[in-house]
Write a structure and sequence with these properties.
The N and C termini lie far apart (about 45 Å). By secondary structure, the chain is mostly helical.
């Protein structure tokens, strides 16, 4: 599983695209307010759940980034020497 995560996270373009698509599902502008016109408590619960869910997803993606292959620093030798 770690090898799969490492390959996924190392491909920065795919990683960022998947992250953006998943986070789009937690957009507050998608909440249908008309359904909750008579019940502010339910509207608050939905908004809170989306905000908390978005933060949990962000944390999960941050944890996945820990699987990224470290960049090797190359000591360049001065060609003038």
């Amino acid at each position: 599983m770690n090898d799969f995560l490492r390959a996924f996270v190392d491909n920065k373009e795919i990683f960022e695209a998947v992250k953006a698509e998943v986070l789009k599902e937690f957009d507050l502008f998608d909440v249908d307010v008309d359904v909750f016109l008579n019940n502010n408590l339910q509207l608050g619960e939905v908004v809170r759940a989306r905000v908390q869910g978005k933060e949990l997803v962000k944390d999960a993606f941050r944890k996945m980034e820990s699987y990224r292959t470290p960049v090797k620093e190359v000591d360049e030798v001065n060609p003038g020497r």
